[in-house]
TrEMBL record:
Name of the protein in its database record: DNA-binding response regulator
A Pfam family hit: Response_reg
GO cellular component entries: cytosol; protein-DNA complex
SUPFAM superfamilies given in the database record: CheY-like
GO MF annotation terms: cis-regulatory region sequence-specific DNA binding; identical protein binding; phosphorelay response regulator activity
UniProt KW Transcription keyword: yes
Principal cellular location given in the protein's record: cytoplasm
Keyword presence, Isomerase: no
Domain Response regulatory: 8-121
Modified sites of kind 4-aspartylphosphate: 57
Entry's localization field: Cytoplasm
DNA-binding region: 132-231
Residues in OmpR/PhoB-type domain copies: 132-231
Species, as recorded: Marmoricola endophyticus
Length: 248
């Protein structure tokens, strides 16, 4: 990881003029920039350069960006913002489901992208607010100081976004936290209506911490309201993906 004063970003895009302009703006904003024009180069750069965040285009010439994201998530929790010209909502949903932390559609305002990068950096570097200690709910252990989770004594690998959602709920066990509050605290102001982001990441968490994600016992939905983390509840009915549609 780079220092807090010089965060490093890997920008991946096969359009050279766009990549050049993006790099200039990122450097002007204080970022150290590494670029890649292919999927293979991007995967290599993540290992060798250890960026603090990745900006990933989906339309790459050798390996599709979706495949790059899939491979990346097998070995790395680095925050990924998809930056793509694809406008179809399925593209956004698929990217989030595969582990992207955010999604920006071209063309975009540089101020918006920088704000989202800062949010990613804050999530990945956040050491946790409030006191440390370990919360134990049944077989689930949440260690606030070490920022790790165990289920049945086995470590659970979480991305920075997944950890921040779980930490927010775990610091208030048994209390309902609204969707709007989670979105605002994890993604930042202005994201309160992006419920798709939250549903996807809740589904990811359930796959990792629940014995049966379709009947969650820990991470429970209050339909149309929000979520709570509690072991003293009966497993609730959910769709197999763990991301049941909710009332708005």
């Amino acid at each position: 990881m780079s220092t807090a004063h010089e965060p490093r970003v890997l920008a991946v895009d096969d359009e050279i003029p766009f990549l050049r302009a993006l790099s200039i703006n990122l450097r002007a904003a204080g970022w150290r920039v590494t670029t890649a024009q292919t999927g293979r180069a991007a995967l290599s750069a993540v290992v060798t350069q250890r960026p603090d965040a990745v900006l990933l285009d989906l339309g790459l010439p050798d390996i599709d960006g979706v495949e790059v994201l899939t491979r990346l998530r097998r070995t790395s929790a680095v925050p990924v913002i998809v930056v793509s010209a694809r406008h179809h909502p399925v593209g956004k949903a698929e990217a989030l489901d595969l582990g992207a932390d955010d999604y920006v559609t071209k063309p975009f305002a540089m101020t918006e992208l920088l704000a989202r990068l800062r949010t990613c950096l804050r999530r990945s570097g956040q050491s946790g607010q409030g006191p440390g200690g370990v919360l134990v709910l049944g077989e689930l252990e949440v260690d606030f100081e070490r920022k790790n989770v165990r289920r049945g004594g086995e470590p659970v690998a979480l991305t920075p976004t997944e950890w921040q959602i779980l930490e927010l709920l775990a610091r208030r066990p048994g209390a309902l936290v609204s969707r709007e509050e989670i979105l605002r605290e994890v993604w930042g102001p202005g994201y309160e209506r992006e419920t798709q982001y939250l549903r996807v990441h809740i589904a990811h968490l359930r796959r990792k911490i629940e014995d049966d994600p379709s009947h969650p016992a820990y991470l429970v939905t209050s339909s149309g309201r929000g979520y709570l983390l509690d072991s003293a509840v009966e497993p609730s009915e959910e769709t197999p993906s763990g991301a049941a549609p909710e009332q708005s």
